[in-house]
């Protein structure tokens, strides 16, 4: 759920949900008054500010002493989320609870980290631990080390996600941007984790590292593959974790995933159908990859759309297309539907666009296609 869509949930109704959670612990909590106070303050605010408003109003209604208050919150939490339950669908309303710990508990790091561990089992805690990393780094990393060995997949995921150097929706953590070694020491233990939730976080962590230390990320990935006997779970982490480098055609990253640049592999043909899609519609990207060698090749195929900007210039964005084995002397067709929808980070403009395909780092020529105004616009 995107940030700009999620924000609308953080209103008086969210305050009601929290009131219901706290009813046994705080029977005198007036949910109507709580909700009205929130609604009076959130107009025109974005997601983080709305969450902060609810956290502030929650603080006014909890016991004054932080340790007592956080104990009330923890004692009110429900059952732990299963692997197939998402925090944005099942427990989104707990975001202000995590924000409460993030904002008000810094003078009580032990109690706050205990609370974050419990919150993350029902929601998530990666944002809440960021101030504790900054002010109590040694203490927090000792706790993260323990979390990485937890029997809970949610807690193990927190051990990785909370220390990402470039965690989305959070400020970069410069010590780990500059030196990711402490991060790798933790996620080393999670490279063959049985939980997809955990593995996805580990891969995203490696991708963060690759943006600042590409060679270190590649060597780490190679070490992981060797130490795990090339397990399928570790292979998946490595391929996803090196995706930024792979999309750039980085030779070392492609070699690690056994899809290194090969003079015998090339893009034979690339096209888009329909050739004139409209904004809001989707089009099929089709790429034919050729292998002129004498042995089969494992090929990673990506594509770049060169989007037209408001000033008429083109800016490329890379997307994954697929992975295919191409037999010796043969070809393979790889296809995918691409939806031409504006997103928060990219506004679509009608006009001439470009399309480039890439197979193991070997790029095709750029073809042009027209993106039309939305139908009925």
Description:
The structure is a single chain. This protein is an alpha+beta fold and 377 residues long. The chain is 45% helix and 18% strand. The strands form two sheets. Strands 3, 4, 6, 7 and 8 form a five-stranded antiparallel β-sheet that branches. Helix 4 (47-61) crosses helix 7. The mean pLDDT is 94.
Index terms:
single chain, 377 residues, alpha+beta, three-stranded antiparallel sheet, 45% helix, globular
β-sheet strand percentage? 15-25%
Shape: globular
- Compute the number of helices: 18
State the end-to-end distance: 26 Å
Please describe the biggest sheet, giving its number of strands, its sense, and whether it closes into a barrel: 5 strands, antiparallel
In short:
The protein is 45% helix and 18% strand. With 377 residues, the chain is α+β, with helices and mostly antiparallel strands.
Write the layout of secondary structure elements.
Blueprint (H helix, E strand, L loop, with lengths): L2 H4 L5 H11 L8 H9 L7 H15 L4 H11 L10 H4 L4 H10 L4 H14 L7 H6 L1 H11 L5 H9 L12 H5 L2 H7 L8 H17 L1 H14 L4 H10 L1 H5 L3 H6 L8 E9 L8 E10 L5 E12 L5 E13 L4 E9 L11 E9 L2 E2 L3 E5 L6
Antiparallel strand pairs: 1-2, 2-5, 3-4, 3-6, 6-7, 6-8
Helix pairs in contact: 2-3, 4-7, 5-8, 7-8, 8-11, 10-11, 11-14, 14-15, 14-16, 15-16
């Amino acid at each position: 759920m995107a940030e700009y869509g999620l924000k609308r949930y953080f209103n008086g109704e969210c305050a009601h949900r929290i009131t219901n959670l706290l009813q046994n612990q705080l029977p005198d909590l007036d949910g109507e008054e709580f909700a009205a106070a929130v609604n009076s303050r959130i107009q025109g605010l974005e997601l983080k500010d709305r969450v902060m408003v609810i956290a502030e109003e929650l603080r006014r209604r909890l016991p004054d002493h932080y340790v007592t208050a956080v104990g009330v919150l923890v004692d009110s939490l429900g059952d732990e989320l299963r692997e197939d339950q998402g925090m944005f669908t099942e427990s989104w309303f707990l975001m202000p609870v995590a924000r409460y710990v993030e904002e008000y508990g810094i003078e009580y790091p032990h109690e706050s980290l205990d609370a974050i561990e419990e919150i993350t089992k029902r929601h998530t805690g990666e944002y809440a631990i960021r101030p504790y990393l900054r002010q109590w780094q040694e203490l927090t990393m000792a706790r993260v080390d323990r979390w990485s060995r937890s029997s809970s997949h949610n807690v193990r995921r927190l051990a990785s996600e909370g220390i990402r150097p470039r965690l989305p929706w959070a400020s970069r953590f410069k010590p780990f941007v500059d030196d990711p070694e402490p991060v790798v020491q933790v996620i080393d233990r999670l490279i063959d984790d049985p939980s997809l939730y955990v593995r996805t976080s580990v891969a995203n962590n490696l991708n963060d590292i690759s943006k600042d230390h590409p060679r270190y990320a590649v060597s780490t990935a190679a070490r992981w593959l060797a130490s795990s006997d090339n397990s399928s779970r570790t292979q998946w982490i490595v391929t996803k974790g090196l995706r930024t480098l792979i999309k750039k055609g980085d030779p070392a990253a492609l070699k690690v995933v056994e899809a290194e640049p090969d003079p015998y592999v090339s893009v034979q043909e690339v096209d888009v159908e329909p050739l004139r899609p409209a904004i809001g519609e989707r089009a099929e990207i089709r790429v034919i990859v050729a292998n002129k060698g004498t042995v089969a090749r494992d090929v990673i195929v990506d594509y770049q759309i060169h989007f037209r900007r408001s000033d008429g210039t083109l800016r490329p964005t890379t997307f994954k297309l697929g992975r295919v084995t191409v037999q010796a002397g043969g070809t393979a067709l790889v296809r995918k539907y691409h939806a031409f929808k504006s997103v928060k980070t990219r506004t679509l403009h009608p006009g001439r666009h470009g399309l480039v395909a890439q197979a193991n780092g070997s790029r095709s020529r750029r073809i042009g296609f027209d993106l039309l105004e939305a139908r009925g616009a």
